[in-house]
Every structure is written in structure tokens, then in C-alpha cells.
Amino acid sequence: MMKPWTDVVAQLQRSGEAYVLVTVIGTRGSSPRETGSKMVVTTEHSFDTIGGGHLEYKAIAKARELLLKQQDCQHIEEYPLGATLGQCCGGKVSVLFEHFSERGKDVWLFGAGHVAKAMVPLLAELPLRVHWVDSRAEQFPEHIPENVQQCLSDDPVGELSRATAGSYMLVLTHNHQLDYELTEAALKRGDLGFIGVIGSDTKALRFRQRLSHRQFSEADIAKLTCPVGLAQVPGKRPMEVAISIAGQLISLYQAQRPAQQKQQAIDWASLKQELDQPT
């Protein structure tokens, strides 16, 4: 897939998907590409090129090997371009592999009340990227963890348009009407991975009735989790509720990991066939 590596890296950084940046850092003799040539490898695709042929096939295989380790690292490989790689250049290439692991799921947390304040330090310790939204500057604590992005906005519903597909959404605002508007906007999108709203069973019933009157289908309404949190973790104190919600998110992303790991299986024959095609 011939797409500039710079565009791909920018897109992957926004989405948080794992990737390996492959760079030719040195050449001796004749080689298919010059020093500085780059390509990007993910679990399913490769972008741009370091010269094609068996060299690129080996480089992609090495990159996918690093992706399976699921941790940031750097690695250098030396490739002689002779008979062993089936290339007639006769030179030698040094290749740098930089693995950037998956950054975790995006969580959009709306509301900066007592429960949210108790929950943010918990979420900050998990492999999640938290976007914390409220319209009240005084509600945010002085210290915000590094992997939590504070978003002060007079239009919280509008901020939802910035969420990537598959993001988790938590609605914990001080205003029931705002909670409903956020919920309706999330269901209209239809592509979020989780929609959790704090509240009582009575609030949940009212929300579902309003959504039904707004012509949302039963399947759409079923995507709403209200009250949010694990039923097995009772309690009404802010920390108790925060732990219950954090536990539910942990269950969600842990349940998704096996599927992600299956996607990392490599079809070596198809990969070699693709790379052997003339460019």
C-alpha cells in the first residue's frame, strides 16, 4: 500500500495502534534504497517501501516479530544483499526497527465531580488514554496525570465528535439533561465501544423511555449501560463507585485482547507473494 509513511505515522499515533517504523540507517555498496528510506509496518499492513523484494519481506517479518512482544523497543539488523536474500545488489544494508506499542483505548470522561475525581487516578494507572471534559474550570484538580487530557469546554456534546471509533464513553456530569444529550449524541454516532452513564435505575428507565420516544431502536438503546459499574461492587461512596466503574472498563479491554492478538497472526505465504510482485 503506497501511502507516505509520515501520513501513516500521524494516523496511527492518533488511533493508538501499534506499529514499527523501519528505517535504512546505513548502506555499503549497491542497495535498493538510500539511507533514510522508511516504511511503516502494522499487524495487517505495510506502508511505503525500503526497496521491495526479499529485503523488504525479511524486514516486515522482523517488524511483525517485534509487534508480537507488545512493548516499545529499538532493534538494528544487518542484511547482506547477496544470495541469501535473493538480491543481486551485492551490498549491505543496516536497518533500524522502532516499535511503538499500542497506547490503549480512548476513554472520554464527561464530568469532573466527586466520582470522576476519585476515578481519574485509577484510570491513569491503566493502559488507557483519558479525555476529561467539563465546562467548569474550578472543578478540575490542580494535578492532572500525564496520560489524562483535560478539556475545558462550554460545549461538552460537541467534544464528543473528536472521539475515535471504538472509544469508551463515561457520562458523570452534574446535570441530568446534559447526561441525556451526551447519551443521545453517542447513540446517534453508533460507533463507540462502550457508553456508560452514572445514575439510578429510575434515571436509566427515564432515559430509555425518552430514547424510545426519539425513535431509537431497541438495539440502539441496548448499547447504553446505565447504571454504569459492576453490580458485584456495591457502595455509594465516590471511591466505591469509581472502583466499580474502573473494574467494568478493565473487564471490557481485557476481554478484547484475545481478539487483537489473533489479528497478529501472520500469513507468511501471502506476504511473500505480495512482496515478490514487481513494483
TrEMBL record:
InterPro entries: MoCofactor_Util/Proc (IPR052698), Xanthine_DH_XdhC (IPR014308), XdhC_CoxI (IPR003777), XdhC_Rossmann_dom (IPR027051). Residues 13-71 form the XdhC- CoxI domain. It comes from the Bacteria. Residues 107-249 form the XdhC Rossmann domain. PANTHER family: ALDEHYDE OXIDOREDUCTASE MOLYBDENUM COFACTOR ASSEMBLY PROTEIN, XANTHINE DEHYDROGENASE SUBUNIT A-RELATED. This is XdhC and CoxI family protein. The lineage of its organism: Bacteria, Pseudomonadati, Pseudomonadota, Gammaproteobacteria, Oceanospirillales.
